[in-house]
Each structure stands twice: as C-alpha cells, then as structure tokens.
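Project standup — Tuesday

K.O.: blocked on the structure for the chain from last sprint. Re-posting the sequence here as requested.
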Amino acid sequence: MNLLEKLEQGWQKLASNLDSKQQAERKLLEALQRDYAEEIGLAEALKKQSENVPYDHLRQKLLNIAEAEQRHAEMLREKIRELGGEVKARRLTGDSLSTLDLLKILEEEKEEYTEYLNARALAQEAEREDIRELLERIREEEVLHRKQLMDVLSRLNPLPIER
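H.V.: unblocked you, prediction finished:
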C-alpha cells in the first residue's frame, strides 16, 4: 500500500468516525428534546395535581418534585441549545387530575429512568461527558422522585387492611 492509499484510508476512517459521532449527537439531541418535553409536562401535571391534595405536607412534596422537574427541564434546554436544537414542550390538557393521573405520573417517572439510561449511552457515544454526567444526575433524582410519589400515593389512598 502506497502513501496515497494510506492517507485516503486514514481520511475515510476519520470521516466515518466523525459521521458516527454526528449521528450519535443527532440521536442525543432528539432524546434530550423528548426528555425536556416530558420534564415540562410532568412539572405541570404535578403542580396541577398538588391543587387536589388535601394535606399540606403531601402537597408540598408534589410541589418540590415539580420544581425539581422544572430544573431538570432548564438544564436539558441548555444542553439542547448547545447542540444547536430547539425546545418543544408538550402541554397538559384537561382541568382536573385524579389519583389515577398521579399513578400515570409515577409510571412516567419509571419510564424516564430507562430513557435517561439510553440517553446517557448516546452522550457517551457522542463524546459529551458533560451531558452524560447531567443525565446521570437527573436519573438518580428520578429514582428519588418515584419513591416520593409512591409515598404520596400510599398516604392519599392507603390499601385496605385485611383482618
């Protein structure tokens, strides 16, 4: 193999690596945009749900989780903009939420945990350690949110005791 062929092969390999990194960044951007919309939606849903909670301490728990979800969204928005993307938020429909909606929120928190694991892998592939660390931190907080939501749910609707 002559020098020209080696150079050409090297450039092709470099272009291929850059292309896979760009693809990973594009997929990462899409994941961050989806996560942003979900975080905003959850924050709104939790705020709305807190209005129906008759106990101050439980209401405050929901509001604290909503504030954390809002902070997550803001951090995600910053990373989306760094990657050259735009943010799109979904909005809630309907006026009142029920305990069933709180159960749906709990389920969304569980799904987000998995989504953050996937997005973290994309960040690593895109060589964005800053985003990977952010996603890991958010993922850890989502675990805490699930526990807090389960606590609120169990206190709002305790299971009947069998005698």
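K.O.: great, moving the ticket to review. Residues 16-155 form a domain with the Ferritin fold (CATH 1.20.1260.10). The chain is about 80% helix and 0% strand.
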